[in-house]
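User: Second chain of the day. Same drill as before.
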Amino acid sequence: MRLKRGDISGPILAILVTLLLIAIGVAIIAYFTFFAGGTKQPVISITGQPVAYKSGKNNVVVDFL
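Assistant: Same format as last time:
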């Protein structure tokens, strides 16, 4: 089989497709990391030491000192 001018062989085509898919993946990750920003969910910050104690017969209270 003789190659014609401008033909791309199978391995070269496979490498190019692989590089294209990697570039698309990197672009998607970069978009969600840098351009989309952080999540809008609030962050819970607990300061102090949590203490659980029994209040009454069946109630358990968690308090922070």
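Strands lie at 50-55, 59-64.

User: Great, on to the next one.
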